[in-house]
Amino acid sequence: LIDHSPSRYSRSPLLYSALHSISARTITMKQACAISLLLLSGASAFAPLANSNTNGRVAAPADVMQLASAADDKTEVREYFNTEGFNRWNKIYSESDEINSVQMDIRTGHDQTIQKILNWIVDDNDIAGKSVCDCGCGVGSLAIPLAQMGAKISASDISDSMANEAARRAEELGIDAEFYTSDLESVSGKYNTVTCVDVAIHYPSEKMAEMIGHLCDLAEDRVIISFAPKTWFYVFLKKVGEMFPGPSKTTRAYLHDEEFVVDTLKKAGFEVQRNDMTATNFYFSRLLEAKKTQ
Question: What confidence category does residue 26 fall into, taking pLDDT thresholds of 50, 70 and 90?
Fold first, then answer.
């Protein structure tokens, strides 16, 4: 999900869980689409529970397993992006030539999404001196260009490795920006703009409203969010993918209904002003910009 032409710094696109399962070979457009969402159905992911309360009753084995799974999922995501995942995605979101054709396609899609955001910011011409909170900043793909435009950046990521790499890249460019390690739920404060790109894929539907609500609580003026759209086509491909559980997959991937996301933003007092869609062979992302109405 990006394209910030000046420099490529960021993290997991919609299909990050699939990448290491694909070999560098030539494939057709239809095969690419099928494989990409097929691989989206990975084995585990950051899937926090909607409600861990057992309403006073003794927890059944299923409840215990669900609670354990939620904790394990979040730990897995953190560990993945601190080790193997960091090495892989840091290479994709750089100028490195050590990537295959599938990885290049994901880089292109992610770059396109970032560029669309930057174009919106340029069109508005009002970011200089404004505070921006980038939740799930990765290695700084969006935060660094925004800082170069004069924004006051506070950016976080669940991965130490990602946040540290973003800080390193910013320092290398002489950019003053804050990068720190935190999960999204723990981010606090008030900011003119809140961005969250390539993060919603870790959230199941029952947690999406809470996640969007928290982003809106942080924002004084605007929220920019991207997510994998839930359409009949993508759902179908994801179902096909569940038939091929490969051993190397690391996370589950969640698709979200656009109408639900828009309605949730509206309930929090934010109206969608602009939207766009990025779709390459291996990358699918709906991008929304919502501004505060009350």
Answer: very low
